[in-house]
Amino acid sequence: MKNKLFKYTLRLGDNALILGHRLSENCSKGPYLEEDISITNTALDLLGQAEAFYKYAAQVEDAGRTEDDLAYKRPENEFYNLQLTEQPNGNFAHIQVRQFFIDAFNYYLFSQLKESKDPTLAAIAAKSLKEVTYHLRRSSEWMIRLGKGTPESNQKTQQALEDLWQFTHEMFVADEVDETLLKEGIAADLHKLKEHWDAKVNEILEQANLQRPEDGYHATGSKKGYHTEYLGYILAEMQYLPRAYPDAKW
């Protein structure tokens, strides 16, 4: 049970860290100042969530590692973030579609986890839900704005939907870790989560005059440490200094 809780918490931290890093890459590249600040603040929220989950994961593991060790001293195949979070930023529509998919997922995930029987997970989820509620409102508004904007903004947003749809399926694939912790009242029910996620996605796409992509190829494997080629480059950049100077004090 201890190992499963460690891995479950680690996954939550990995999702937040990798997506937060991706968003931080877009700092100073927003279409205007207010939006640039919003993207950066969202990245900071995600990094704060990652720190909280990693700190708890380190406590659960009880092996002498810290939250910094979990973030900066694990190899690629020991990261379990969703492949969606590691996809490159692309154009502005691409960033917002990726964010909307994850925001909707996180909103319903944390809505369940705040009722978890694990008090620490419940507390982190309750705090994170306040941030994620804003994230989802913001990305939903951008989906509608882009979809109902110009023909070009609609086309680019629709193309982003088509490009990223293959990575949404694995958000709801449960494994032994999920199933065991669900029975204990600790983890979220991914089946129920998908029902809510589908309803929210359909609602926003309809308002935005966008078409839900057809299901086809599904990317999977992140819960086993399988990733796209992009994660290795993210970690090489993010982990360089801590690995080059492992005893440094910042």
Concise account of the structure shown:
The protein has 250 residues and is mostly helical. It contains ten helices and no strands.
What would your notes on this structure say?
The longest helix has 29 residues, at 33-61. The chain has ten helices and no strands. It has a single domain (2-244), classed as Ferritin, core subunit, four-helix bundle (Ferritin, Up-down Bundle), CATH 1.20.1260. By secondary structure, it is an all-alpha fold. It is globular.
Helices and strands in order, then pairings?
Blueprint: H1 2-24, H2 33-61, H3 67-72, H4 92-113, H5 119-147, H6 151-164, H7 176-183, H8 190-207, H9 230-238, H10 240-244
Looking at the overall shape, the CATH architecture is: Up-down Bundle
Order of helices and strands: HHHHHHHHHH
Would you tell me which CATH topology applies? Ferritin
Number of helices: 10
What key attributes describe this structure?
10 helices, single chain, mainly alpha, 250 residues, Ferritin
